[in-house]
TrEMBL record:
Molecular functions per Gene Ontology: hydrolase activity
Family, per entry: Belongs to the glycosyl hydrolase 67 family.
Residue ranges of every copy of the Glycosyl hydrolase family 67 catalytic domain listed in the record: 128-447
Name this protein carries in UniProt: Xylan alpha-1,2-glucuronidase
Organism of provenance: Sphingomonas canadensis
Protein keywords: Carbohydrate metabolism, Glycosidase, Hydrolase, Polysaccharide degradation, Signal, Xylan degradation
InterPro entries from the UniProt entry: A-glucoronidase_C_sf (IPR037054), GH (IPR017853), Glyco_hydro_67_aGlcAse (IPR011395), Glyco_hydro_67_aGlcAse_N (IPR005154), Glyco_hydro_67_C (IPR011099), Glyco_hydro_67_cat (IPR011100), Hex-like_dom2 (IPR029018)
Length: 695
């Protein structure tokens, strides 16, 4: 096994489960329906063949015990006649029930729409993958968010920005005439976790994609994904009217510009009638945008929204902005620019906000925009690809990190309103809700660059479906489908995964530090970097370490970024006594001798202890994995073993380099029992990139 099958391995079940499942899945009853119901049927056939070894004959009616009946009341008279309670399930939810039809035992997968049937089919297969009983089923489920989207940062030359899993899956050269079968497997995997939209192109956009020749290729991909309930979206380069439209300006208030986009949208929808819409990165990191014409983000987003609205499309407008003119505290800019625009966006605009206010760091407090724009549909943006978390070779399960962000209390409008609640609560009944995840998928056989990064794709999809879903439960179901159902193995792997995020935080950015990565590739440590052109590109800007202490003062006496949170949180984060320890240095600049509450150690000693704790946690993962040698298949086991060895070396590198640097500033001795870095600081400074892929 090389990991290609992801969590959809459908390996044979053990004898006793064979006995239990066989009589419950003897035939498949499909009455009518379109391509999505056909995809559901094909998946059930595939899964049953794999797990039980038998074909699933199609029958027109329930003729014997064990039929699986799938459909909507509109496509299937049998489903309609059952009068099932589908009312609360929306377009995408499903109901799976053990029923009796004409005196025969049957299982029905019913939904209001075909997508729900497909999701239900994957759920029934999952029940078998997890060895749940399937003879007395009564499962009803529906997604809590409407848009569950992957953002591919894929360039048209197939290079993936911040991608560590090979090239882009989209083989533009062979499209539209050749459809790689991987497109279907990709769509199956996405549908199995409820993802219903994919942005094909990089946020650092190229206007070319909007030309007719490319749209034909996009259409072919859309056709491959459509049966799986997935819509395609594109990134829109704001200056496209100039670059490919021959206009002199891209000013959103210029009628010729608006007309160009309207015509472009009309053209796209003629080619792809169910096109999802645009994702836009504007006035950020050199990207063009409305500010170039002294217009607001709302002016820009609304102009595009008006072009898409007649076709039902939406604009996902990113709030990831920071400019050279605001060097005081980069963390404040998005809120400062966007919060006053609340209520100024069209109904089909979503503001897409990263989980934290800086940039996908190993740990950040939640972004203060969540809860602060109650009249604006707000979309979460997580990064599945591990740009700042050791790329694909470090085993880091992101489920716990995302759970922490989603469970954070915004105190807006009142205590108890979590980030997940903000995402789930539509601003009005018709308004969109959603989540975006920056994909970690590429052309590698294992899709995500490592076996364990598949878990992050999986967990993202599950949390987009239900932002309240628990990271541990998600990890455990992924393990059972991906590795083994043996309880001891599941426990061991779950233990590794559940502690893995805390480990990377410890060995890279403990106690609320952030952005200490070396320039460009964001891989190894570079806390000493302080000579880049813009202040906020430098790690030194973020840690502010000097002889007196370390940390970024965002309290009232500092940048006052705390004031962007609800008053209760501003008070909590702003107080050295009350701030959660994991965010200590995110919000405060403190003396090296500051006493850390939980341990009573000095800040300096605590930092060293945490760096070492991180390295030790990686060593513990290695030991756990070594013990599983006979429990999982060889090839995947070896790959993980090797990657853990890389991670161990690099955790040590992070620890040694960071301590060497901070010690050169703090001038303090290492606490007892903690070894000095083996090499002088200059050695670590000279390691420039360890062959890390760049941008
Ligand atoms: C940063 C990445 C950069 C992205 C940017 C973004 O380094 O490659 O283009 O985020 O999200 O983290 O737009």
């Amino acid at each position: 096994e090389d990991g290609y099958d992801l969590w959809l391995r459908y390996r044979p079940v053990e004898g006793e489960w064979h006995k239990a499942y066989d009589p419950a899945v003897t035939a498949l009853v499909v009455q009518g329906g379109g391509a999505t119901i056909a995809a559901a049927a094909a998946e059930l056939e595939r899964g049953v063949k794999g797990m039980l070894g038998h074909r699933l004959p199609r029958t027109g009616s329930v003729a014997a015990d064990g039929a699986v009946v799938i459909g909507t009341p509109a496509t299937s008279p049998i489903v309609a006649a059952l009068g099932l309670p589908l009312a609360g399930l929306g377009d995408e939810g499903y109901l799976i029930r053990s029923v009796t039809i004409d005196g025969r035992r049957a299982t029905v997968i019913a939904a209001n729409g075909e997508k729900g049937v497909l999701y239900g089919a994957f759920r029934l297969l999952k029940a078998m993958q997890l060895r749940e009983r399937i003879d007395a089923l009564d499962i009803a489920d529906a997604p809590k968010l409407k848009l569950r989207v992957l953002n591919h940062w894929d360039n048209l030359d197939r290079h993936v920005e911040r991608g560590y899993a090979g090239q882009s899956l989209w083989d533009w050269q062979k499209l539209p005439l050749h459809l790689d079968p991987r497109y279907t497997d990709y769509a199956r995997a996405n549908a199995s976790i409820g993802i219903n939209g994919v942005v094909l192109t990089n946020v650092n956009a190229n206007a070319e994609i909007l030309k007719p020749i490319w749209l034909e290729k996009v259409k072919a991909l859309a056709g491959a994904f459509r049966p799986y309930g997935i819509r395609v979206y594109l990134t829109a380069r704001f200056s496209a009217p100039i670059e490919i439209g021959g206009l002199k300006t891209a000013d959103p208030l210029d009628p010729a510009v608006a007309a160009w986009w309207k015509a472009k949208a009309d053209e796209i929808y003629r080619v792809i009638p169910d096109f999802g819409g645009f994702l836009v990165k504007a006035n950020s990191e050199g990207q063009p945008g409305p500010n170039d014409y002294h217009r607001t983000h709302a002016d820009g987003a609304n102009m595009l929204a008006d072009a898409l609205a007649p076709h039902g499309g939406i604009v996902m407008w990113r709030a990831f902005v920071y400019a050279a003119e605001n060097p005081e505290d980069r963390a404040k800019q998005a809120y400062t620019e966007f919060q006053p625009l609340d209520g100024r966006f069209r109904d089909n605009v979503m503001v897409q906000v990263k989980n934290g206010a800086i940039d996908f760091q190993p740990r950040e407090p939640f972004h203060p925009l969540f809860g602060a724009m109650p009249r604006t549909p707000m979309m979460m943006e997580f990064q599945i690809t591990k740009e700042y978390l050791g790329f694909a070779t470090h085993l880091v399960y992101l489920g716990t990190m995302w759970e922490e962000a989603l469970a954070a209390d915004t105190f807006r409008p009142a205590r108890g309103t979590t980030v997940a609640d903000v995402l789930e609560t539509a601003v009005d009944a018709a308004a969109p809700t959603g989540m975006a995840g920056v994909a970690n998928i590429g052309s590698d056989r294992n899709w995500s660059g490592s076996q364990f990064d598949q878990a992050n794709w999986y967990a993202y999809g599950r949390l987009a479906w239900n932002p309240q879903g628990g990271a541990e439960a998600i990890a455990r179901e992924w393990i059972r489908m991906t590795w083994s159902g043996d309880p001891a193995t599941v426990d061991a792997i779950a233990g590794m995964m559940m502690g893995s995020h805390e480990a990377v935080v410890d060995y890279m950015t403990p106690l609320g530090l952030a952005h200490l990565m070396a320039t460009g590739h964001h891989y190894g440590p570079g806390p000493w970097v302080s000579d880049l052109a813009r202040p906020e590109w430098n790690p030194a800007y973020y840690h502010k370490a000097d002889a007196a202490g370390i940390g970024f003062d965002r309290s009232r006496t500092g940048s006052n970024a705390v004031a962007q949170y609800a008053p209760e949180l501003a008070d909590r984060f702003g107080s050295v006594k009350k701030v959660p320890e994991e965010f200590l240095l995110w919000f405060h600049h403190l003396p090296w001798d500051f006493r850390v509450r939980s341990s009573g150690r000095t800040l300096w000693d605590e930092l060293v202890v945490r760096y070492d704790r991180g390295v030790a946690a990686v060593a513990a993962m290695q030991a756990r994995w070594a013990a599983l040698e006979s429990r999982v298949d060889r090839r995947r086991w070896e790959e993980v073993r090797d990657f853990l060895a890389i991670q161990r070396e690099e955790a040590q590198w992070w620890r040694d380099a960071s301590i060497a640097y901070f010690q050169s500033v703090s001038k303090r001795p290492l606490p007892e029992g903690h070894a000095a870095p083996p090499m002088p600081l200059d050695h670590y400074k000279a390691i420039d990139n360890r062959y890390a892929p760049g941008n």
